[in-house]
TrEMBL record:
Keywords: Metal-binding, NAD, Oxidoreductase, Zinc. It holds the Pfam family ADH_N. The keyword Transmembrane helix does not apply. CDD domains: Zn_ADH10. GO terms for molecular function: metal ion binding; oxidoreductase activity. SUPFAM superfamilies: GroES-like (SSF50129), NAD(P)-binding Rossmann-fold domains (SSF51735). Transmembrane segments: none annotated. Residues 78-439 form the Enoyl reductase (ER) domain. Belongs to the zinc-containing alcohol dehydrogenase family. It comes from Penstemon smallii. Its cofactor is Zn(2+). This is Enoyl reductase (ER) domain-containing protein.
Length: 442
């Protein structure tokens, strides 16, 4: 019964997406247009070739007779080559997984690290890991409690760390350390049975998934990585709850354990750093110091709760932070850039007994320096933090956003169309995105 209903709704969802699909052309267009990539004109899937004898696939025939059906996704092939749009077989969820019609996906530095080859990842793959969407199908044999809590048609938000719900760490509530997520998704680009859900339409070549592979019209997400998005919150802006805000919340709630009255410095106030400012404000921090090298970002930081702004090109950040805090340093400093120099600055900015929280990813294998005696004698805590705990944190983040305590509208500085996603990553790379860009998919 439930299965029949979900299949029906899936068909409905697919047919309603035809209109959107009809707006796109051509299927395998290049996402980057830079001359550096001008030699990159080949389409890996043969979606431009004939579907049936001599008939080129047209937009109107994108989803053929409702089933079998296809979708479009943006594929990363190899470092520093443009993403290409490819046709995929409609992905199928397995037990306790959910097929989502993707509405929006955020543009994050982690994807950029993969695209630039700085973080090794299985390829070809679909990047994008900060999504909102609509539930269109449950995998067969999915737990009835999951079906009840995330029924067909629900609006949902997906966290980039998708906990399996049953490993050693998940059973302790530390979803952010989920063994299945790291062993399968981060290490191999698959879901937790060791297989991807993405296959090219022509030839069936498997394509790996960075988290859920959010830069596609549909994606499969393990159910524990999802939470219901109330209809008072918009699809586009709410996408950032799944990585930028999720990461900021994890850093402030679990790693730093911020208390009201704490003095906090955030080094690097882009998408994640500026979310840290807002979460610090929500938790009652007294001094909130934003550090960056761009005046535009520092200006905007004040909207997010920063009480002080330091341009590290014009002033010495550590000296200035000490000055603001009566010579002691902050209770908590957060590094949101992922550079060796700012790693050291972060450690030097905290008071005795303070916490230096690192959330910026960097080149694979990069090292940071710490003054050992200072760390020992002054009881400095250097803490790594990656994402948040989906099952416990997502519902709290959603409440903060719903009540306006976290301002989503201000945090999203750019909205772009799916076909412009390549441009968005290029602008992110140049530091031209003040805040967060979100791709609207359907
Ligand atoms: Zn991210
Ligand atoms: Zn787990």
């Amino acid at each position: 019964m439930a299965f029949q209903r979900s299949s029906l709704l899936l068909r409905k969802a697919i047919s309603s997406s035809r209109t959107a699909a009809a707006l796109y052309s051509p299927y395998s267009s290049l996402l980057y247009s830079s001359s550096n990539y001008s030699d990159w004109t080949r389409s890996y899937s043969s979606s431009e070739s004939s579907d049936t004898e001599g008939t080129t696939v047209t937009a109107a025939g994108y989803h053929v007779n409702n089933a079998p059906s296809y979708m479009r996704g943006a594929v990363f092939w190899e470092p520093n080559k443009p993403l290409t749009f490819e046709d995929f077989q409609m992905p199928r969820p397995k037990a306790n997984e959910i097929l989502i019609k993707t509405k929006a996906c955020g543009v994050c530095h982690s994807d950029l690290h993969v695209i630039k080859g700085e973080l090794p990842f299985a390829s070809p793959c679909v990047v994008g890991h900060e999504i909102t969407g609509e539930v269109v199908e449950h995998g067969k044999l999915t737990d009835s409690k999951i079906i009840q809590s995330l029924p067909i048609g629900s609006q949902v938000i997906g966290a980039f760390i998708m906990p399996c719900g049953s490993c050693f760490y998940c059973s302790k509530g530390q979803d952010d350390l989920c063994e299945s997520f790291f062993e399968y998704n981060r290490a191999k680009g698959t879901l937790y049975d060791g297989e991807t859900r993405l296959f090219l339409r022509n030839g069936g070549k498997p394509v790996y998934m960075y988290s859920m592979g959010g830069l596609a019209e549909y994606c499969v997400v393990p159910a524990h990585g999802l939470a219901v998005l109330p209809n008072t919150l918009p699809y586009t802006e709410s996408a950032i709850l799944g990585c930028a805000v999720f990461t900021a919340y994890g850093a402030m709630a679990h790693a730093a354990q911020v208390r009201p009255g704490d003095a906090i410095a955030v080094i690097g106030v882009g998408g994640v750093g500026s979310s840290c400012l807002q979460i610090a404000r929500a938790f009652g921090a007294s001094e909130i110091i934003a550090v960056d090298v761009q005046d535009e970002k520092l200006q905007k930081a004040k909207l997010f709760g920063a009480t002080h702004a330091i341009n590290a090109l014009k002033e010495d950040a550590v000296t200035k932070i000490k000055e603001i805090t009566g010579g002691r340093g902050v209770d908590i400093a957060v590094e949101a850039l992922g550079r060796a120099q700012t790693f050291s600055q972060c450690v030097q900015s905290v008071r005795d007994g303070g916490k230096a929280v690192m959330i910026g990813l960097t080149l694979s294998g990069a090292k940071g320096e710490v003054d050992i005696n200072h760390l020992v004698r002054r009881q400095i805590k250097v803490i790594g933090s990656y994402g948040g705990r989906a099952r416990q944190d997502l519902p709290k983040l959603i409440k903060l956003a719903e009540r306006g305590i976290f301002n989503l509208e201000a945090a999203v500085s750019r909205k772009c169309k799916f076909e412009d996603v390549g441009e968005a990553y290029k602008d992110l790379d140049k530091g031209n995105i003040v805040g967060r860009a979100v791709v609207e998919i359907m």
